[in-house]
Amino acid sequence: MCRFLLYKSNSPILLADLLTRPAHSIIMQSFNCKLRIDRRRPMNGDGFGIGWYDEPRTNGCIFTSTLPAWSNINLQRLAEKIKSALVFAHVRATTGDTATSESNCHPWQFGNLMWMHNGNIGGFDRIKRRLQNSLREEVYLSLQGTTDSEHAFALFLNMLDDPEHRDEFSHAELRQAMLRTIAQLNQWLDEAGVEETSLMNFAVTDGQSVVCTRYITSAEYEGASLFYSSGSEFRSDPETGQYRMVKANKREDVVVVASEPLTYERSDWMAMPTNTLLVITPKLNVHLYPIRDKYWTNEKRHA
Amino acid sequence: MCRFLLYKSNSPILLADLLTRPAHSIIMQSFNCKLRIDRRRPMNGDGFGIGWYDEPRTNGCIFTSTLPAWSNINLQRLAEKIKSALVFAHVRATTGDTATSESNCHPWQFGNLMWMHNGNIGGFDRIKRRLQNSLREEVYLSLQGTTDSEHAFALFLNMLDDPEHRDEFSHAELRQAMLRTIAQLNQWLDEAGVEETSLMNFAVTDGQSVVCTRYITSAEYEGASLFYSSGSEFRSDPETGQYRMVKANKREDVVVVASEPLTYERSDWMAMPTNTLLVITPKLNVHLYPIRDKYWTNEKRHA
Amino acid sequence: MCRFLLYKSNSPILLADLLTRPAHSIIMQSFNCKLRIDRRRPMNGDGFGIGWYDEPRTNGCIFTSTLPAWSNINLQRLAEKIKSALVFAHVRATTGDTATSESNCHPWQFGNLMWMHNGNIGGFDRIKRRLQNSLREEVYLSLQGTTDSEHAFALFLNMLDDPEHRDEFSHAELRQAMLRTIAQLNQWLDEAGVEETSLMNFAVTDGQSVVCTRYITSAEYEGASLFYSSGSEFRSDPETGQYRMVKANKREDVVVVASEPLTYERSDWMAMPTNTLLVITPKLNVHLYPIRDKYWTNEKRHA
Amino acid sequence: MCRFLLYKSNSPILLADLLTRPAHSIIMQSFNCKLRIDRRRPMNGDGFGIGWYDEPRTNGCIFTSTLPAWSNINLQRLAEKIKSALVFAHVRATTGDTATSESNCHPWQFGNLMWMHNGNIGGFDRIKRRLQNSLREEVYLSLQGTTDSEHAFALFLNMLDDPEHRDEFSHAELRQAMLRTIAQLNQWLDEAGVEETSLMNFAVTDGQSVVCTRYITSAEYEGASLFYSSGSEFRSDPETGQYRMVKANKREDVVVVASEPLTYERSDWMAMPTNTLLVITPKLNVHLYPIRDKYWTNEKRHA
């Protein structure tokens, strides 16, 4: 199990203020993950990746490493220099026996789209070939690694029209492609008779809109945790040094979505309901959409 | 372009005597490769791998790294300790834009089989999907990376009967599977209209027999270089310190095949003819077989 | 804070049976360290090292990596092949801001001596120059990194007569050098007015004898944990698959010392008393010696 | 032997236009170094580092790696995003048996000063202790690795007044400290009776001024090569795609100093005379100063 974080704002934030300085940053989460479902491997030390955009309609940049995030001195240094208004970050714990490899580090890029995943697709091996065969050639050949997460991205790309050459997508289009991706995965998993549960917390952006999900192939259990928060600024308190989401006015200038709250003010963080899709529009409006398929329920789920 | 070396003998050699101490070892070849066809990237600094067997009918062991071989201190230390009578070694230069990754380092293993490749399959992208679709499930799912070399191994495995659970193969069986692999690749490349030339210097072993090829999809040009030598011992001269193939008697106790001669005694090294398959039997007999397909010629080839 | 393990026996053990297969191996300890004093960084993911000897009176071999032990596929593979009757293993968590570096990975070697350390020398910076200036030239120049641990080894070497060219030391000699090393460190720390506490769990071997300490520069607190166990064999139970120390007869054929018990049978593990030195002789006798200096006490210490 | 490059201009350049895209960039130099003195290890594949400043009077940022520069995908990606008007870049070949380590990668930083070195200090081991003992405590303790290059930087820092807390230095002050550093090294090397030749191509900057040297401890031989070029812009020709130094007017807006010319227009590159110091002022004026010590000569030197 892994962890991710995404940040979108009106004005750039120094990556250090998001990734390395906060006491409960995603880097620290790689030490001490209290909310994890999978207890077998209690930390995320198998590499990490960050992605960010510096200007609209340009491709993002990605920095990945198979070294643990917390001891990566290049990450520490770059985070003190790079500013961005749209950031993806991911820390990784390998779940199998594969070598830790940079080609298996999130996030992935294709054109100006960026993708990351927290969770896993149960029984993925049984639908892998079918998934690959469904892909258009340019998407199929873009695969660099072997993970379920990257293959889910490929399937998502396949739902879009010419993702290689476009620099912009409407958020409605991204949302539809995300829903179709999940639906398609579910159909194949069903047809293959897979009974393992899948956790599909996906996040995608084109540098302007963001779409992400908290999703589980179950009507009984909660999905992997996902929280969001918004406000006017994410910064440290000058007195305590603690980071928090400042809500200086009614405008929302910052939205953060993360596997775990980044600050100790739990009231600032809302849990995304399980099997929900969240959209952040280019203008920073946040919309939540229930994903009403056979795993939808109004009943209380088990944690 | 890469480089490889394989060694088989009656008694174990210290890896250092093969890999790190000789002045013209495969590690030094990674500095100074005079015989290379592809001049664009004049060294092999993108990782390496070694594989070796310690006892018959056991799986081999593999050590790979994305650091250059010449500065890998773990390799230096292990080579001073490990002895083996059957060794594969490979140094790698990436040919594309992909990240250097341990899952793309030769050699690969499957059961007790080990495989490496020097060269490249031209236009591989155009047959990749077809190749994958031809694979049995357990072979398909064993793919860890994205290289043509590993996919060629998968195709080879697909030619064998139950490679996952057997610990021994006859050399005739390995030879037939190798020839069928090359023939199948050629057929698909033809059908896909690929015109780029492929260099298929492959090597495979089950820990007892070795089969390797020097092969090019051309009747005009020489393949990537491949040399072999045999004798009673490969060791350094006590006076000069130079390594050489000692021929103390008529018995052949050691066979070495390498992309370039490992010693300065060129007369000790025979060039394998282009489009030939070489077999080393468990008893260290060496057989050469011409590969008589449409790329076979008796004419002189261009270098 | 780090963790270490040392193993000495009459017959070689497969490294996998010691390092990677046991459920509570040192690799697993790098996930879940319940007995650690320093809670700030709850795992040991900043690299590891193993050292082993294959024959008496030869130098040992070392394999180190800055990747976490649990995801290092080379470690997994090598551990399935290498056997040794004398093994050191260390997992590391950096305590400062320094880059994780292979030259800062334990164990270190000098001639046929091997050294590792669990703990830290408080205020080391204030005695570093003095320590370096006390070293003989060949020891001073052998320093590869910047850690207190490696410098403590250098000081230890300086207490020995010609460690560079000898292949054997009596255990009494190693023990005396260890005690003099600790005494010298203490004297310098005192003279520099250092008040921070030091944890000096050191281990050293020449391939035949082993000397290790559980030591703290305090008469009030317990040192970093250290346990030992002995028996006739360390192996997995054929029924449960659990590893344990088998005590088939009264002979002691195996001695293990480790920062935490390797098995769930706590009764098999004795805690080394704080400020004690343990010797394992070449014939596998175990002796404990109290270190009677100003930090010695018969009172109960605080955990 | 290594290679370095430094770039200073009035307006920021995209790092890719300097480091990764030019056909004869420092990255390509790591493949094919025709002008090297030391032929034993014909490439620079043992790591690299880049350093850059984004605003005056701030600390620079450093990105280093022990992977070869040419296969480092993070470098490729970052270079497409980061712009700077003051860049240091270094590719490295280890000269000894030490592990390749990030703490031994150039450039180094101290406060807002940055340093790199091409060459080596012959017989450094014989003056290392004396050099360390001459250092003020904060400089001594800042040493992270073991190289002669980093120690030369420490000595340079020791010549400055409070380098830790200042954000600006006059170029005269940097120049004097550089000359004193070289003179001090020479004095110690002489007193130690060292006869090996030293190559001291040093470069230092505070983010505004740059001082670098081409220097050898010999009156007979040329030092390691160093070239410089200036003009109004360093960019690719829109027609040929070749990079070159454009000289659109008489103003000098760009100065580049590099171990080898970065372009094929040799007339654009001036060789720095051996035993010369070059200063680039904050306003981009370039001054050359002969280093008139006992190794100065008006005679022709041997290459």
Quick recap:
Chain A is α+β, with helices and mostly antiparallel strands and 303 residues long.
Task: Tell me what the structure shows.
4 copies of one chain form a homotetramer. By secondary structure, chain A is an alpha+beta fold. Helices cover 19% and strands 28% of the residues of chain A. In chain A, strand 5 and strand 6 form a beta hairpin. The first copy, chain A, contains 7 helices and 15 strands. In chain A, helix 4 runs parallel beside helix 6 and helix 6 (148-158) crosses helix 7 (171-191). Chain A has one domain (3-290): Glutamine Phosphoribosylpyrophosphate, subunit 1, domain 1. Chain A is globular and about 55 Å long. The first copy, chain A, has a 7-stranded antiparallel sheet with strand order 3-2-4-1-12-9-13. A 6-stranded antiparallel sheet of chain A has the order 5-6-7-8-14-15, covered by helices on one side. The first copy, chain A, starts with a strand and ends in a 13-residue tail after the last strand. Chain A has helices at 15-19, 26-29, 73-79, 128-134, 137-140, 148-158, 171-191, and strands at 3-14, 48-53, 61-65, 83-91, 108-110, 113-120, 199-205, 210-214, 227-231, 233-236, 243-246, 254-258, 270-271, 276-280, 286-290. The interface between A and B is medium-sized, with 19 and 19 residues.
